[in-house]
Amino acid sequence: MSTDFITGVYNPDVLSCIANLSSDEVFTPPELANDMLDMLPQELFEDPNTTFLDPACKSGVFLREIAKRLLVGLEQKIPDLQERIDHIFKKQLFGIALTELTSLLSRRGAYCSKYPDGDYSVARFTSPDGNIRYKKTAHIWRGGRCTWCSANQEQYDRGPELENHAYEFIHVNSPEELFGMKFDVIISNPPYHLSDGGGGAGKSATPIYQKFVQQALALNPRYVSMIIPSRWYSGGKGLDAFREQMLNDRHVSQIIDFVDSKDCFSSGVDIPGGICYFLWEEAHNGDCTVTNVLKRGDVDIATRPLNEYETFIRQNKAVSIVKKVLSKNEVLMSNTVLSRRPFGIDSNVKFDANGEYVLRSSSGTGAIKKEKVTSGHAIIDSWKTIISKVTTEHGGVPDREGKMRVLAVVESLPPQTVCSESYLVTGVFKTKQEADNLGLYLKTKFVRFLMMQMLASMNMSKSTFSFVPLQDFSRCWSDEELYTKYSLSDAEIALIERTIKPMIDGGDGNG
Are strands 299-304 and 223-229 parallel, antiparallel or unpaired? Predict the structure, then answer.
């Protein structure tokens, strides 16, 4: 057996190297795995009856790091080293690999051999799988989607020579039957999404991580801890029910949130909207301790209820500002902003040589024929205030100074002008002055700060305005007037000022 395995001396650590490879299937650095293990009661590692499961093994890092802790924690109860190793790997540690390749890698990471029934395995098993199983599982197709994971049949109905990414843990009715036992701790870094063929992970992908969380909770463990994208905070594609479940679950005791995923993983891992990991405790029934890991290494910690609002306010220090705004019970702009594709025009539409209307698209401004406008006819003759649907930042990630601009484009469109789905129509008016005043309002730091609390991806929607109050746009508004209207304290104003970049009133410059 390797002395390094016992002492924890790894130079270099192959799992640290693997963790830097790709953001498509994110491997977990050992340091991050240990940060998650630190959240658990450490007496778990002194109990020879505690059982652990990683249902999405990629490198075996969780099982390996747990084993290192158990080797120390059980030394008094099982003094013989080989007996202790055999007990840990055969009775306490279990895993389900994502692919055949990661099953071999996980066994190598945990057992020091990809064949645990061989001579080089630290614990000798009678089967070539050990306690890290992999079974080729099939999708069940219905209407072009998998009934288990919603995978796109066109993308994943593949031949046997290719991985179909039908992960076993979320393709069974009774996951407890996989090992025939109950687990105390389920800990993992599950897959985040499956491409649905519509533009890649950042723009058009089906989230899948929530299914791993829900399946883990269905096993009724004592603890669950997983690393997942932060997009669930404000819901979105397939996540609304999961968001509601998590926000109303009083067993969620801790959330560690990284606005920039590169601060959580290595510099090469970029998850739009940031990343978080959480601890769910069966015995906990109360508020959640939320740790914001911000830019510049700043950390802010607060204990608060997750379900105070329908969406989760990510930044602890923003809660008091949102409370003051909502206390006035004004109409919110989420009720007045138009839904996407307000005129039924795709983002890739081509200009026409001659057309009855003017089209504003991401390619610029040109003519479009009347018949291409399939909706929004009632507002064509009005003034419209539009914003770019895509934020200036990548998934709501601040710059190196911790600042965001949020809005890329704010414009007023005159009558007989329409826009593609690249833009959101935020207001419809009879006069240019009202449209311009809304534009100036949207450019205030106050409004963009409130919008920022709802950003969990690079794309905005009606829900992005859930905390933005509607104003009287017969007049213009300044930050100073808004700070006074909502009785913001000096500390709250300072937070907004140091978080949001200025915008030039007359255009789209950075200011």
Answer: unpaired
